[in-house]
Design brief:
four-stranded mixed β-sheet, L-arginine/glycine Amidinotransferase, Chain A, globular, alpha/beta
Length: 373
Amino acid sequence: MESLLLLLPSMLFSCTKEVSTQQPVDTTIVYTMPEESSPHEGTWLQWPHQYQYGKTYRNRLDPTWVAMTKALVQSEKVHLIAYDKTEQERISALLEEAGVPLNNVDFRIFPTDDVWIRDNGPIFVKDNNGQILIEDWGFNGWGRKADYRNCDAIPGKIAADIHIKSIDLNTTMINEGGSVEIDGQGVLMACKSSVLNANRNPGMTQQQAEDIFSKYLGITRFIWLEGKAGLDITDMHIDGFARFANASTIITMNANDLDYWQVPTADISKLYAATNKASVPYKIVQVPLTQNEVMTTYGKNLGKASYINYYIANRVVLVPNYNDPNDAVAMGIIQQLYPDKKVVGIDCRNLFANGGMIHCVTQQQPLQISSTK
């Protein structure tokens, strides 16, 4: 189904990092990943550029990045990664033209392959002393399907640039941020198809993956769905159809829409029956797909689209919009989940043409809260 395909050129590259799964992992919990709605210091974005897929690609996506930046700068830093100095100047001009104040915008100059910082970017965690660190997991272009060398280097470059300690996990595991969901209370939800896949982690067992996630993300309970490899470039990331809205709630779709999204039937049943670390069932909130098939601004039909791939910021929740009647329905449901935040619709029609939405292109940096000791 074309609406589920990430329409980037399918390119294979021989220069990849080999992932070793033979070394035993110390399973002692050392790091925990704050839940997305925890207070942010800022949000990281990789701005679209012309150097990989051309100016048309860039120009079609610019308005979405302007809209995200405009919504976010009111309550947190926005760290914009620009390909080079020329791109920084171009982006600054776009923001100024849109009336976006730059006082809360922080530019970093790093070459990137593309925009999907949720998958290739830093994962911010806290150690046992509450200090924030960056975890630099391996990224190989979703199983060597797209160029990735520049993006794989981003976490290390950010860590060096902002002077935060980095934990190098490149030879431990290939792990994309969009492939895992956490509830902030020790539970992780993921599809095996995008984690335990030979194109990411050859030979890795479920137990090995759990040991790694336990140590580096603070996980004590797992909800594993099978997923569906080969359906799209991500091999079915969980954040396209199911998320933890909060510690007690999973937000997803109804069974018919999950079937349209090609989620396996057994996964649907398992998702609806999921329980937290205390074995208490999660509340299930369902959001419909778009009412109509989505059309890009340049006339391409993408099929129906999901609203689940939203992003929780300090004072706003950025929700994908598609010029569809169900935009208002989805935003109303999501607004009820976050009464202390303002839901803001972001036009994602052209972004969805490339396979992702808001959550895929954002990455939160938690606020460092000073110790009271």
